[in-house]
Amino acid sequence: MVFPIYAQQEKSVPSADKTRESVEAPDAVEAPAEIEVPESPDNTRVTLGQNEVLIVEDKGDTVKVKLGSRGVNIVEGEDGTEIKILDMQDEGSDEKSSESKNRKKKFKPHFAGFEVGLNNYLNAKHKMSLPQGSEFMDLNTGRSWNFNLNILEYGIGFGSDKIGAVTGLGFEWINYVFDADNSITKNEQNVIISYTPQGEGSVVKSKLNMTYLTVPLLLELQIPAGKKRIHLSGGLIGGVKVASNTRIKYADPKAKEKIKDDLNLAPLRYGATVRIGYRAINLFANYYLSPLFTGASDPELYPLSVGLTVIPF
User: Fold this and answer.
1) If you ran DSSP here, which 8-state letter would residue 139 be given?
2) Are 304 and 274 in contact (CB under 8 A)?
3) Fewest C-beta atoms under 10 Å: which of 184, 228, 280, 312?
4) Domain end call among 49, 80, 103
5) 71/186 same-domain check
6) Residues 37 and 26 both lie in one domain
7) Cα–Cα distance measured from residue 154 to residue 177, given in angstroms and rounded to the nearest whole number
């Protein structure tokens, strides 16, 4: 197949202005084939067909012949002639692999995942002690759990794959388990007070439950550590209250009491969050700058949660 191509090359070169010559196809071929011979002192390239079914390239000591998805590379060197069979599909795979590597260099955020931690709150002076008259809000911290499910994340790199802004969407379930055998309610003046059931058996557990929809706005920095990275982030986190209730569990007789109420809880809240992690394991801390209750006479408390995040690979 190579010999007739070179014969056509010699016939098509006489005129410097003529670089393409049509050759009549045999009767069995409906569309005429084309041979293209670009002028170049160091490189001769011959193509056959409108879709370049056959390509022949002569680069002095190297001749490459491509036919469809296959090819032959002939190299004449000091050690002799080397013939290498080419697979053009593999070359395409290499290009895809290179594109895949470029995609991996994009900034990847670390927010989505499952979080579990412990809850508490601070007073107006950012201390753990409760305000005077608010002793009924004392918590059993070891049983006051915080569960977060961050379902969406979105990152914007700042011209690098190591630093960027992060946002997303998640749900936060907060349980405040009271240390004493009491719950909370609102009195006639709409003020949060202690509530102790009368005529019931001993209290096994009493807690306040809240559910918030959360949205973060973070700045994340990623530090290379071997083949992986340590990721640090911090910023703001906002929440919208979805539901709230109190629950009391009695031992004798066995019974449960559930009361749905807004309990003067903040419908909207905002705070600060920090996160640090390596691979799938992270630590987080959320401190809300808006108070737990909105009433002027309610206990002034600011929610705090600290825990562990598991990020899926």
Assistant:
1) B
2) no
3) 312
4) 103
5) no
6) yes
7) 34
Q: Is the peptide bond before 32 cis (omega within 30 degrees of 0)?
A: no
Closest by Cα among 241, 260, 233, 246 to 303: 241
Q: Which residue has the tokens 């569960």?
A: 147
Instruction: Judge if 164 and 237 occupy the same domain.
Output: yes
Do 83 and 117 have their domain in common? no
CA distances for 76 relative to 3, 40, 63, 227, angstroms = 19, 20, 9, 41
Global model pTM greater than 0.70: no
The 3-state DSSP class for residue 4 equals helix
For tokens 């530090």, name the residue: 223
Provide long-range contacts, Cβ within 8 A and 24+ apart, for 252-256. 252/201, 252/202, 253/201, 255/200, 255/201
Using one digit for the tens of pLDDT, what is the confidence trace for 50-83? 566 567 677 666 767 676 556 766 766 666 666 6
Look at the chain and report how many structural domains it folds into.
2
Query: Which of 87, 103, 119 represents a domain boundary (last residue)?
Result: 103
Q: What is the CA radius of gyration of the chain?
A: 36
Would you state the structure tokens that stand for residue 209, as one six-digit string? Answer: 């439950």
∠ CA 106-110-115 to the nearest 5 degrees?
Answer: 165
The pLDDT tens digits for 118-167 are 999 999 999 999 988 899 999 999 999 999 999 999 999 999 999 999 99
Between CA 37 and CA 17 the distance in angstroms is 11
Q: Which domain holds residue 68?
A: 2-103
Beta bridge partners of 287: 272, 304
For 212, counting Cβ atoms within 10 Å of its Cβ (0-12 exposed, 13-18 middle, 19+ buried), the class is buried
